[in-house]
Amino acid sequence: MADRTIVPEQLYILGNLVIMVAYAAIMMAILVPVTRAKQLWSNKLAVTTAMIFFSCAVGHGLHAFMAIRSAQVDGHGHLQPGWEWPSAAWDMFTALVGVYYWTLRRSYKVLLGGGSIFTSPGEQNRLSEADAREQAALNAAEKHRATLAAVVEHTDDAIIGVNLEGRVTAWNRGAERLFGYNAGAAIGQPMSLFSGDTSTADQMAMIARVRHGERHVHYEARRVHRDGSPLELSINMAPIRDAAGSVTGVSVTAREVSEMKAAADERRAEQDRAHQAQRMESLGKLAGGLAHDFNNILGIIVNYTEFAIDETEDKPAVREDLQHVRSAADRAQGLTRQLLTFTRGAGARAGDVDLNAALEEARERLEPLVGEQVSIVVRPGPRPLTVRADPGQLQQILEQLATNARDAMEEGGTLVLEAALAGDHGRLLVSDTGAGMTPDVAERVFEPFFTTKPGKGAGMGLAAVYGMVTEGGGSIAVYSEPGVGTTFRVHLPLTTVATTPDSRGTLPPSGDGRTILVVEHEPALMRAATRILTVAGYRVLAAATGPEALVVLGERSADALITDVVMPDMSGPRLAELLRERVPGLPVIYMSGYSAGMLDVSGMLDPAAPFVEKPFTAHDLLHTVHEALHRTPSTV
After folding, report:
1. Distance CA 282, CA 143 (A)
2. Which whole-number Å values give the CA distances from 464 to 285, 340, 341, 352, in the listed order?
3. 10 by DSSP, 3-state: which?
4. Which terminus of the chain is more solvent-facing, meaning fewer CB atoms within 10 Å of its CB: N or C?
């Protein structure tokens, strides 16, 4: 009986002793390398694991000891008490060590993920270096993102994010400067905030193009500043994609290009002038050579015709034919004189000429030339204007321009002759209310042999005018529109001018933020006027036509209107009439390429209305605006 009960107890004791030794060995296997690696105080997980095995080893040793003691019974067969509580306390300690071990599992990635409780020093260095490289890459990426964000935030270009519904999601400082809205006021708002209702549909169409696959969309458009002034922008759109590659929004980059366009317009104008000068110089050389050679031939024709006429007194019929030849030769000589005048070969005799007196003299000479159907209006300058010119050539110029005007007014009309001061030049304006010219015709009117009426002229009249004007150091230009009329401007250098005190010698005071509505259908002139007024302290609302001006103004108010007189869809005076129904006494300044005299006599403009003649200078425009703003309502 005793043999059968003692065998399990022995096995129990033996098993606990073996486990105790095994746990102690595992504990030493952990502690020895950790100690050698000097990680005894830093590798908490390894030490805690060793403590668990140590605790378990001691616990199994206590169990074996208690089993041995349990075999010793007293005389009544009971175990000797005293070792149950130490064993229970040690088991509780082992449990607490196990709980502490579990609190370290997340940081060391043990039990719930891959990891290790001990790493050799070499492997630890390799892992540390890898961690350092990974951290350096993360830091570099974060620094790059911060730098990129700073560049985007502080660039002068407006960088805007919009969602696919056209609402603003991002707004940098460049956008604040360009449009006048801060980020708080712009984010979440529709694009009509800065594009205007009329342009929102166009912008949504551009967003649709990006959404449907276009990587880059570039275009130019007009937008609106917060104060209502126009902005000429170059705009680039690109898609914003999520991690899956789907388009979630659009990045918009906008740059103000008004100054660039103005500079480009100026360069283009200079190139056109240079090209025109080169072309006229080439034509002049050609015409000059032809005139000289032709004069030699004409000299032979005229002389031998005269010889033949003298020898045919007894043959009236032949003599009459020769006289026709002589008359044709005379006309040909007149043509060559015009050619030589165009090429500056006529030898002008310049002197001092009073423009006002020259116009009065021309009236009497031109009335029979233009006929009864054409009335002549002379508007002399407000002060004596003495220019350096050949008096005879000046009358030829007026006669030729009057002849062209008469031909343009087949059913009659008005010829206006005006004199005015233009800087250090005297300005002579010859205007008619005739059929006008298309731009391509106006560009070529000064070319020799160019004519729109074949068979009615040799096309040398205006070429001769060009030669006479430029020979005297002056210049000539033409402004014309089909169905409206034509104005020729001749600038001649002044010699003396009777001066009076002029309050317009300097620029007027600042505009102090007053709002000016500018209506001009020519983009380059629109940009020029906008820039002049903005620099002078005005706020500008801009429109290309009368109907557009009514939309742009909307419910806002303007302190003055500057408008072209002749425009498509609606004239300047009609626009002024509609706006004065809203704002009685609104100051209106008119501008036109036609002379004020022509607009007056044609009934298109009140003679007392403030007027700026194109092309205008900043001096002329700002003074006219200042004077219009400070007129009393009864005189506006």
Report:
1. 64
2. 14, 8, 6, 21
3. helix
4. N
DSSP state of 499: -
Angle, helices 461-471/258-310, rounded to nearest 10 degrees: 110
462 sits in which H/E element = helix 461-471
Query: With left for phi above 0 and alpha for psi between -120 and 50, is residue 554 left, alpha or beta?
Result: left
How far, in Å, CA of 182 to CA of 175, rounded? 8
Tell me how many degrees the CA angle 437-441-442 measures, rounded to the nearest 5.
70
For 263-302, what is each residue's pLDDT tens digit? 777 777 777 767 766 766 666 666 666 665 676 677 678 7
Global confidence as pTM: 0.59
Of the candidates 475, 440, 467, 473, which has an alpha carbon nearest to the alpha carbon of residue 284? 467
Distance CA 128, CA 44 (A): 18
Per-residue confidence (pLDDT) for residue 288, from 0 to 100: 62
The whole-angstrom separation of Cα 489 and Cα 491 is 6
Query: Helix 391-408 crosses helix 355-370 at what angle (to 10 degrees)?
Result: 40
Contact 164, 190 (CB under 8 A): no
For 566, the token pair is 């002749």
Give φ, ψ of 577 to 5 degrees. -65, -45
| Rounded Cα gap, residues 148 and 139, in angstroms | 14
Q: Which of 59, 64, 70 is nearest to 16 (CA)?
A: 64
Q: Tell me: the pLDDT tens digits for 458-513?
A: 677 788 888 888 877 888 989 998 888 999 999 999 886 544 445 455 778 888 88
Contact of 217 with 253, CB cutoff 8 Å = no
pLDDT tens sequence across 53-70: 888 888 888 877 777 777
Bridge-based pairing of strands 475-481 and 413-422 is unpaired
Length of the chain: 636
3-state DSSP assignment of residue 496: strand
Tracing tokens 């030669």 back to the chain, one arrives at: 467
HSE-up (13 A, CA, CB side) for residue 608: 5
Helix H, strand E, coil C: the string for 390-427 is CHHHHHHHHHHHHHHHHHHCCCCEEEEEEEEEECCEEE
Closest-CA residue to 444 (of 635, 571, 200, 279)? 279
Query: Which are the contacts of 241, defined by CB distance < 8 A and separation ≥ 6?
Result: 247, 248
> 562, 518 in Cβ contact below 8 A?
yes
- In sequence order, what are the beta bridge partners of 413? 374
Q: Which two tokens stand for residue 353?
A: 């000429």
Supply 215's token pair: 């990587």
